[in-house]
Amino acid sequence: MRRSFVGLLGSLALCAPSVSAGFNKPFRFCQLGDLQIGFGLDGWQNDTYRMGLAAQQVNTEDFDFCIAVGDLTNDRYDYQIQAFQNTFPQFKKPVHLLPGNHDISNVATLEQFIRDYNVSDHSSFSHQGYRFVLLDSVTLISNLTEFESYTAAEWAWFENQLEAAHHAKEEIIVAHHHLPFEFTEDEADAYWTFPNRVRGRYLSLIKQYNVHHILVGHRHETKNIYASDKSFTIYVVAGTARFFDDNGFGINYFNISGENSSKDVTQEYVHLKEITHMKRSEGLPNGCPDIFAH
Fold first, then answer.
1. R_g over Cα of the chain
2. pTM score, two decimals?
3. Which residues touch 263 (CB under 8 Å, ≥6 apart)?
4. What domain of life is recorded for the organism (predicted)?
5. pLDDT single digits (tens) 73-112
6. Which of 141, 236, 156 is nearest to 196 (CA)?
7. What is the rounded CA–CA span in Å between residue 161 and residue 167?
């Protein structure tokens, strides 16, 4: 039986970043990639072990918080969710959880995600003059009929958050699971990325509100992707379950040194420490429910 997650997250909520009037001191945060318990080549127990190593590594740093960019488990099986719930309290810093396509594929699993992790599927918070907008990219980009009202509501919410941040003179950082694009902004639709029918709308908002930093997962690779005009960077990190490049398991560290996000935000990729398995995966992920109507 799964344990209630209310108590686990409730303790973190007490120390979560509060709304601030503006930037007054440098701060740091981290980006966790796909934790995805149940996806690793060496079994779910080792996925859980590496999640624990990530917690230990995060705890040694002076991060104000972390953002986990989706795919918390691979199959939503009870034992995977239980393993996540058992391991999550090892993080002593606030960790904001986002859903990925392995977490949500229909309304029932959306409701399950909210219930299992005691979080909203999308949210925002302000910290030191920065607005962090955390999106559910599954519902944002899906065209499934059952998601229709959720999709419309999230787009409206997203636009309202951007406008509110602009009005408050806050710098904006956006995080979600899927990549907006991987190579070029007008590339063809692909499994990893926003479909073209919504990509243009998303990128227009990103540029309109001067968003310079986007945090994503999903790709199981670690790299930075740049806008054609260099106006923003997409930070992709593989996480702790599997990787399909030569960059291994790791975490993105971010340093915020000032109130201008175009020049005062720096990122460093740091390998997961004390790791015993660094074998690159071949091929592509499969077995995930489709979130698109064809």
1. 18
2. 0.91
3. none
4. Eukaryota
5. 999 999 999 999 999 999 999 999 999 999 999 999 999 9
6. 141
7. 10
Of 166, 259, 168, 167, which Cα lies nearest the Cα of 209? 166
Q: Are 276 and 87 in contact (CB under 8 A)?
A: no
pLDDT digits (tens, 9 = 90+) for 138-182: 999 999 999 999 999 999 999 999 999 999 999 999 999 999 999
Q: What is the DSSP letter of 158?
A: H
For 175-214, the DSSP string reads E-SSBS-SS-TTPPP-TTB--HHHHHHHHHHHHHTT--EE
Q: Which residue, among 39, 57, 44, 43, has the nearest Cα to 271 in the 3D structure?
A: 57
Question: Taking each helix axis from N to C terminus, what angle separates 196-208 and 148-167, rounded to the nearest 10 degrees?
Answer: 10
Nearest to 122 by CA among 105, 107, 139: 139
Give pLDDT tens digits for 209-235.
Answer: 999 999 999 999 999 999 999 999 999
Write out the DSSP string of 53-70: HHHHHHHTS--SEEEE-S
What secondary structure does DSSP assign to 115-153, as a single string? HHHTS-SSEEEEETTEEEEE--HHHHH---GGGHHHHHH
What six digits make up the tokens of 191?
């499994």
Hey, which residues does 79 pair with through a beta bridge? none
Amino acid occupying residue 14: L
